[in-house]
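Example S7 (structure tokens).
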């Protein structure tokens, strides 16, 4: 629950920016931050220095990330983590004697607002820019079965959206392409989940062409989809994985990049530019360590999967039959409803119409996430089944009484 300046309470059904996984105002997390501030608030991690919280958290994080991704760079935000991941990918190929620089991603994707900062830096004779400052970013069709960009029908489509990646790499030239980055479930694009065959096939294609696969788990990581990391739904291990948001449950700015043994061993002994002054900040690492303990000790991930299953069943049974609900997608407690003017045409209403849902939510004490034509359901993972039912009971009449034509 959150309160506005007038004291009115709202159920936070978006976890703010899908980062407050453990809810608001946990004193035990705040106490860990204060204790670390009192003990040691900052040390540099340049030139091989480290601090105890960063080392201890790295050891804990190794236990939960996909096997083989046990080397970490700590950052301040998700965008920072993604930017560093791109630089790592470019540096990796540079060291191998290849100059791959093109970055593939999906339409409808979101990977942050930071890009190319290294290219604006003049010292070290350009060594901070491991790729052009606005290097080639190329988008390919995303996975969204309800609104397939390739006009196919699942499952007879043969997962054409994944096969297109293979076709594109073949025709663009694999020697030009450094990496393919994708969210295991598209977040800011409206909580769109892929068909189950998608990421296993993408992993095969990237391995076939020697293209690094980056999983952007900034929004999906740490239990949001009912698994610690969303790639676990398909037993896929990326080459690089980015994390932020729920890594500290919104208490501090923090993020991380995990890389494979192959990348680590390739980059050993190289000048390594990614990172910033606050990389490995001991306060952030101490808080992240406490948050990870809570996820594991309080069985938060299992709880999110259970409550998410219950919520999805209610959405399918009660909400999907409504005249203006076109589809339901998502995993765990990261669920999205497609708002349509007409189910046959799948026409999306204008912003002024969908904003009505957002405003009605406030009237009913609901803090909602409405993105274009998508209504998203992503409460803190600690929400109980009873609280989730109350939220759905308040939400149902808003959607049932919706007039869009």
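Recovered sequence:
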């Amino acid at each position: 629950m959150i309160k506005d300046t007038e004291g009115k309470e709202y159920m936070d059904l978006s976890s703010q920016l899908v980062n407050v996984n453990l809810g608001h105002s946990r004193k035990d997390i705040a106490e860990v931050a204060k204790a670390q501030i009192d003990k040691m608030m900052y040390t540099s991690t340049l030139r091989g220095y480290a601090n105890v919280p960063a080392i201890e958290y790295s050891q804990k994080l190794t236990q939960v990330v996909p096997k083989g991704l046990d080397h970490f760079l700590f950052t301040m935000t998700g965008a920072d983590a993604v930017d560093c991941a791109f630089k790592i990918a470019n540096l990796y190929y540079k060291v191998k004697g290849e100059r791959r620089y093109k970055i593939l991603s999906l339409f409808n994707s979101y990977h942050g607002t930071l890009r190319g900062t290294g290219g604006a830096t003049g010292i070290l004779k350009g060594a901070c820019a491991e790729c052009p400052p606005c290097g080639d970013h190329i988008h390919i069709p995303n996975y969204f079965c309800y609104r397939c960009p390739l006009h196919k029908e699942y499952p007879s489509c043969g997962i054409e959206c994944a096969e297109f990646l293979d076709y594109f790499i073949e025709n663009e030239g694999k020697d030009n392409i450094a990496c393919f980055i994708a969210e295991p479930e598209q977040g800011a694009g409206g909580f769109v989940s892929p068909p189950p065959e998608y990421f296993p096939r993408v992993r095969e294609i990237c391995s076939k062409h020697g293209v690094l696969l980056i999983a952007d788990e900034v929004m999906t990581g740490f239990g949001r989809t009912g698994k610690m990391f969303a790639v676990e739904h398909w037993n896929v291990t990326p080459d690089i994985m980015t994390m932020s948001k729920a890594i500290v449950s919104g208490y501090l700015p923090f993020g991380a990049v995990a890389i494979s043994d192959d990348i680590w061993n390739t980059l050993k002994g190289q000048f390594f530019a990614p990172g910033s002054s606050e990389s490995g900040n001991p306060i952030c690492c101490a808080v992240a360590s406490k948050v990870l303990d809570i996820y594991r000790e309080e069985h938060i991930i299992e709880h999110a999967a259970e409550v998410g299953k219950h919520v999805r069943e209610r959405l399918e049974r009660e909400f999907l039959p409504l005249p203006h609900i076109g589809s339901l997608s998502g995993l765990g407690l990261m669920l999205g409803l497609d708002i349509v003017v007409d189910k046959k045409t799948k026409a999306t209403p204008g912003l002024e119409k969908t904003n009505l849902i957002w405003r009605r939510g406030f009237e009913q004490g609901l803090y909602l996430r409405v993105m274009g034509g998508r209504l998203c359901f992503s409460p803190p993972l600690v929400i109980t089944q009873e609280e989730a039912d109350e939220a759905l009971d308040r939400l149902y009449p808003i959607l049932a009484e919706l007039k869009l034509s």
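Notes on this example. DSSP finds eleven helices and 14 strands in the chain.
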